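User: For documentation purposes, I need each entry recorded in a consistent format: the amino acid sequence on its own, followed directly by the corresponding C-alpha cells. There are two entries in this batch. Please keep commentary to a minimum and don't merge the entries.

Assistant: Recorded as requested. Entry 1:
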Amino acid sequence: MKTVRSVILALLPLALAACGPKPASTTANSPSPASTEEKKLNLYCWSEYIPQSVIDDFTKETGIKVSVENYSSNEEMVTKLLAGGGKYDLIQPSEYTIEALIRENQLLALNPASLSNLANISSEFRNMPYDAGNKFSVPYMAGFVGICVNTDKVKTPIKGFADVFTPAHKGRIVVLDDAREITSWAFAADKLDINDVTPENLEKVKPMLKKWLPLVKVYDSDSPKTSLKNGDVDLGVVWSGEAALLYKDDKKFAFVLPSEGSHLFVDSLAIPKLAAHPQNAHLFINYILRPEVSRKISEAFPYYNPNSAARALLSAEEISNPASYPPAQDITRMQTFRDLGKQAASIDELITQIKAGGK
C-alpha cells in the first residue's frame, strides 16, 4: 500500500501537465436544481458500498447516466484520480485521504446552496477535524474496525487484539489487507496514539507485529466476511459493516470493539477539483442525503449511518445490530485516522518486511 500523501506528491505534476491550465478558484459554480451539464456522472467508489438500485433510481429521476468504477484502497483511488485528470466526477475517500487531498488542493469546494439535505447529517459528523464545516466533503457512512468471532468455533472470551493474536488461533484468522490498519492495532495494544507514528514507536511495536502476522491465514480488505462465512477462518479483524452482514444472517457471529481501541472511519463523498460534471455530482450527493435513499443504503450495507434522518427510519432490529451500532461507551475508545504525511511510508515498509519474513 502506497501512502496517500506520497502518491499525491508523485503524480500531481503529471496530472496538472496533462490537464493544462485551470482556474485558480476551487469553488463550484452554483449548481442549479436541474443540471445544465451533459447527462453523465463518473463515480469512483469503494466496492460493495452503493446499492445498484440507488444508482438506477437516481438515473430514472434525473436522466443522468452514472458510470461506476471501484477501488479497494484509498491509495489506489488517489493514484487513478490524479493519473486520470478530470476523468472522475465524484469520489468516496476516507477521512485521512480527504485531509491529504484538501492540503494538496485537489478537491472542489462544495456549494451549500445545492445541498439542501445536508442538514440530515448528525451534528457530530458535520464538523470533523479533517474538514471543518464540510467545505469539501459530505459523510456517506461511518464504521469501525473490530473483531468478528464465530462463537461456534471460538469458545474463549475475545475482548481485544491480544486475545485474537494467540498461537491457539494460528491459521484461523482473517485481517484487513491494510498496512495502516494493521500497524494501528499494535499501537493501540501498546497504549500508543494510533496517529503518533514515529520511527521510535514503529520500532517499539515491531516485535508485536512479528508475533502477530505469522498467525494470519487470510488478508482481505474487499470482503473479509467471505472467509468467515465459508468457514475458512474462525475470527478476524474486519470492517464493522462486514461483521454486521454476518450477524444479520447468523447470530453465531459476534462483534467486539477492541478493548484497546481502534479505528473509527468516516467515508465521504467529495468532488475532484478537475471534475467535468460538478453540477451532476452535487445532485447525486443531495440525492444520497435523502432519508429514504440513505435508509436503502443502510439496509444493503449496514454500517453506522451518519444521516440521523435515515437512522430514524431503520427498524429496531437494524439499530440493535451490535456491529452497526455498538454501545456508545465503546465508541469512545475509537479514533479517526489523520494524514501522516511522509511518515506513512515507513508503515508500508515495516509491514511488507514482516510479511516477507524479514527482520
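Entry 2:
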Amino acid sequence: MAGNVKVLISPSRYVQGEGAIFEIGRHLRKLGKKALVIGGKRGLEATRKGREKSLSENGLSQMEELFNGECSVAEIERLTAIAAENECDIIIGSGGGKVIDTAKAVAVNAKAVTVIIPTIASSDAPCSAMSVIYKDDGTIERFLITPRNPDVVLVDTGIIAKSPARMLVAGMGDALATWFEADACAGSGSLNVARGQATAAAMTCARLCFDILMEYGLQAKIANEAQVVTPALEKVVEANTLLSGIGFESGGVAAAHSLQDGLNMLEECHGFYHGEKIGFLTLVQLVLEGRPRETLQQVFTFSHQVGLPITLADLKIDGIGEQRLREAVAISCKPKATVHNHAFPITEELVYNALITVDAMGRRLKAGLPIV
C-alpha cells in the first residue's frame, strides 16, 4: 500500500515580483531575529539595498559573509560556526546555485530558518530540499536531502532581469524536462524525489511549467536581454523556479536527468550549465519514448529559438567518437539510475540510438528542414 501514497513537498512561502526584495523583512519578522546572509560579491550587492532597508524596518538585524566559491564540507562548517558564534537564527542565501545549496546545508546544521534569494533563474534548485555537496577540487561528494524545503524563497524579477539571459535560458532547459519526466514516472508508477507518488497538484504544476515555456519562453528571453521585466518574464521565472521545483521533486525525474551523469564525465561538457545539458537530454528522452512528430517538432523548435543545445556539436562532443559516447551512456544506465523510471525496459543501445537520432534531427532543423 505504501507505493500508492502521494507526497508533495514545496517551500513554505514563495514570493516573486519586481521590487520583492524590499518586502523581505515582513516575510521574516515572525521567523527569527538575526540573519546570516551568505553570497558572492555580486549576489550580495544585488540584494543589499532592499534587504538592509526591509530587514531594518521590520526589526531584524543581519550580517554578511562572503562565500568562498565552493559548497564543500569545509565551507559549510566554517559558515555554521559563524552562525552559531553570532547567534543567527536565519540563514539567507543570496546568489546562484552553489550559494543556495550552501545556505540550505548551513541552515540545517545551525537549526535555523532557511531563506533563499536567487539572483539568477538558471535552475529549479531554490525551492528544493536538496543540496549538492562538492569536494574542494570541485567534484561531487554527495547529495544532501534536507529535512524540509526552504522556509521562504523570494525572487525579485527586477534583479533577474539584470542577470545574463543565458542563465534564464539554462533555467528553461532544466524546466523543459519537468513535465516529460513527471509524465514518465506517472506512467511507470515510479516514486518521486519525496519517495511517494505524484499528486494531481504536482502533475498540474509540471504541465503548466511546460505550457508556459512554449508560450512565453522566447518572449522572456528577449525581455531579459533588454534587462526589463514583462509579464512573459514573470511567467517564465515562476516556471523555472517554482513550478519546475515542485514538478521535479513531487513529480519525479527520469531519463533526462539520469543521462546527465554520463555527460558530466565528458570534459568537453564542463563549460555548459546544468540546464543547457538537461535541455538537450530532454530531446533525447522524447526520442527514446517515441513521442509524436508534432511534440518533437515543437520542442526542438523551441530549444533552437531560445538557444538551447540541439546537436552534439552544440555541446562540443561531436568529435569525441563512438566509444566515449557509449561509455557516457553506460554510466547513465546503471541499474538504479532514474533512466529506468519509464514504463518500458531501457538499454544502453536504445539510449545511444536516441542520442544519435537527436543529433541528426538537430542538424536537419539547423539546415532549415523539418526534423522528421
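Summary note for entry 2:
The longest helix spans residues 200-225.
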